[in-house]
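STRUCTURE:
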C-alpha cells in the first residue's frame, strides 16, 4: 500500500470507545480505514458503490455502523463494559474463536471489510451477486493486504444450497439487503448450528418481531436479542437483530433465487 493510496481522516476526533464498548482502533487499523476510504472514493467514480462519501458520514455510517454489530466479539481486554450500550449477557454468547464469518450482500464491503480489519484473526467471506462490485473488492482487498478476506460472487440462495458452503459459518452479517425475514432465509442455512446472524436494521417495531418469529420457526432459528443503538454523531436509531441457529435448517430453505425477496417466509406465500 502506497501513502498516496491513503486519505487522511480525522479518526481521533470521533469517540469510538464510548459507543463501541470501550474498543479503540490501533494505528495500523486507522491507516487501513483511511486507505479503505481513499479506494472507495476512487472506485465510486466508476461504480455506484455508495452514496456515503463525506468523511464524517463514512466514519459514522460505514465504519462505526459496521463495527457496532460485532461489539459482543470485540477484544475483551479493550472493552469497558460500563460504557457499552449492550446488555452484559450479550457479551457471553459462546462462539468458537477465531470465527468464520460471512457478509451477505456486501456491496462496497460493508460491514465485512471494517470487521476484517479489526479482527485479522477471523476469516471473513464477502458475498455479493454483482460481479463489478466483486471485481472492485478483489483489487481493494489486495491493495489493503487483507489475507483473511475471501470473495465470492454468487447469490445467497445458491450458496445456501451448496454443500461446500451450507452450514459452514459461525457468524453471518447482513446489512441493507432486504426484509428481516428475507435476511433470515439468506443467513440461517449458511450458519453452523449454534451460529449467530446479525441483521443490521434501521427502525424496528414489535410487529417486526412477530413476523420474524414465524419465519424463524421454519428456518430452525431463534431470536436472541434486538438491540437498539443510537449513532454517535447524528443520533439516529439503529437496531441490531441477533439470531441463533438452534437446529439444522430444512433443505427446502433457502428457496430458489428471487423467491425469498418476493415472498418473505411466514406470510403464507
Ligand atoms: N451491505 C452493503 C451496505 O450495507 O453498504 C451493501 C448494501 S446494497 C443496498 C445491497 C447489496 O446486496 C447489493 O450489492 C446487491 O448486489 C446485494 N444482494 C442483494 N440480494 C442478494 C442476494 N440474494 N445474494 C447476494 N447478494 C445480494
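SEQUENCE:
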Amino acid at each position: 500500500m502506497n501513502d498516496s493510496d491513503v486519505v487522511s481522516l480525522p479518526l481521533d476526533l470521533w469517540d469510538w470507545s464510548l459507543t463501541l464498548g470501550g474498543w479503540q482502533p490501533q494505528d495500523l487499523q486507522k491507516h487501513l480505514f483511511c486507505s479503505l476510504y481513499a479506494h472507495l472514493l476512487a472506485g465510486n467514480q466508476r461504480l455506484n458503490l455508495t452514496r456515503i462519501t463525506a468523511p464524517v458520514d463514512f466514519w459514522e455510517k460505514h465504519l462505526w455502523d459496521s463495527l457496532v454489530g460485532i461489539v459482543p466479539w470485540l477484544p475483551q481486554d479493550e472493552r469497558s463494559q460500563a460504557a457499552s450500550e449492550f446488555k452484559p449477557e450479550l457479551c457471553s454468547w459462546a462462539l468458537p474463536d477465531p470465527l468464520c464469518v460471512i457478509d451477505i450482500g456486501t456491496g462496497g464491503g460493508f460491514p465485512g471489510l471494517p470487521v476484517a480489519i479489526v479482527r485479522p484473526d477471523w476469516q471473513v467471506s464477502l458475498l455479493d451477486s454483482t460481479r463489478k462490485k466483486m471485481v472492485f473488492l478483489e483489487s481493494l482487498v489486495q491493495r489493503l493486504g487483507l489475507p483473511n478476506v475471501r470473495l465470492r460472487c454468487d447469490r445467497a440462495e445458491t450458496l445456501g444450497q451448496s454443500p461446500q458452503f451450507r452450514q459452514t459459518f459461525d457468524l453471518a452479517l447482513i446489512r441493507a439487503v432486504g426484509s428481516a425475514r428475507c435476511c433470515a432465509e439468506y443467513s440461517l442455512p449458511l450458519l453452523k448450528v449454534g451460529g449467530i446472524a446479525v441483521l443490521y436494521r434501521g427502525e424496528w417495531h414489535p410487529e417486526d418481531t412477530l413476523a420474524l418469529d414465524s419465519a424463524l420457526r421454519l428456518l430452525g432459528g431463534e431470536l436472541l436479542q434486538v438491540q437498539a443503538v443510537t449513532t454517535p454523531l447524528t443520533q439516529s436509531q439503529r437496531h441490531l437483530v441477533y439470531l441463533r441457529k438452534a437446529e439444522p435448517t430444512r433443505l427446502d430453505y433457502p428457496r430458489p433465487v428471487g423467491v425469498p425477496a418476493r415472498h418473505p417466509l411466514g406470510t403464507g406465500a
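REMARK: The chain has eight helices and seven strands.
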